[in-house]
Amino acid sequence: PRRSYVIDHCFTSDLDANAPASPGQVVLVSAALKQDWATVLGMLDTGASVEATDDTGVTPLMAAAMQGNSEILRTLLERHARADVTDLAGRCALHYAITAGKLEAVQLLLPMMSNCEAIASAENDLLKMVLETGDMKIFQTVLERFPATLQWTETTRLALETALREDMKEQVRL
């Protein structure tokens, strides 16, 4: 029951849940994780899917996000990489950028997300992730994208306390 995101991913993904990642997909993502972007772009140019995943569901876009590589993020998004795709743990590229503390990547990916609350599952609470990084610029950027009707939870109370402590008047109003 605590891993409902895995089941949700099976129903929302375009992938066959029974089929393991192909060797080509794994190589593509492996190259992305190693920051071998020339190989990645070459494979994409020859027909590899921009949505290729490894066995854990990580995509090249997620790899670029965790590295904070804005140029490659833009290139992959131009090639129609979907920012809302999640890995098997329920994390999207935005989660990886936040965890890595990559502000520019967060700013690039955040507008691609239609609803921050929808991607903030219990296991991957965006606001909590941002607070754990301690990066107030990322905190401010993400908080401003949340709707004004946020529900009071332990995390939203912690966000309010953080905004008060940091004297962030606009965020306190949010």
Beta-strand share of residues: under 5%
Number of strands: 0
Shape: elongated
| Helix-strand makeup class | mainly alpha
Alpha-carbon Rg, integer = 17 Å
Mean pLDDT: 81
Q: Which series of helices and strands comes N to C?
A: HHHHHHHHHHHH
Task: Determine the fraction of residues in helical runs and give it as a percent range.
Answer: 55-70%
| Count of DSSP-assigned helices | 12
Largest sheet: none
Low-pLDDT runs of 5+ residues are: 15-20
The separation of the N and C termini measures 32 Å
Question: What would the keywords be for this entry?
Answer:
single chain, 174 residues, mainly alpha, 12 helices, 56% helix
Overview of the structural elements:
Residues 15-20 have low confidence and may be disordered. The longest helix has 12 residues, at 154-165. The two termini are 32 Å apart. The chain has twelve helices and no strands. The protein is 56% helix and 0% strand. The protein has 174 residues and is an all-alpha fold. 30% of the residues are buried.
